[in-house]
Amino acid sequence: MMTQALIGVIGGSGLYQMDALQDVQEHTMSTPFGAPSDVIVTGQLHGVAVAFVARHARGHRLLPTEVPYRANIYALKMLGVRYVLSVSAVGSLREDFKPLDMVLPDQFIDLTRRREGTFFGQGAVAHVSMAQPVCPHTADALARAVQSVLSEEDPSSRDTIALHTCGTYVCIEGPQFSTQAESHWYRSMGAGVIGMTNMPEAKLAREAQMAYATLAMVTDFDCWHPREAHVTANMALANLLQNAGRAQRVMAQVIRMLGAEQPDSLAFTALQSALVTQPDAMAPEARARLAALLA
Question: What is the pLDDT of residues 183-201, one digit of tens each?
Answer without folding.
Answer: 999 999 999 999 999 999 9
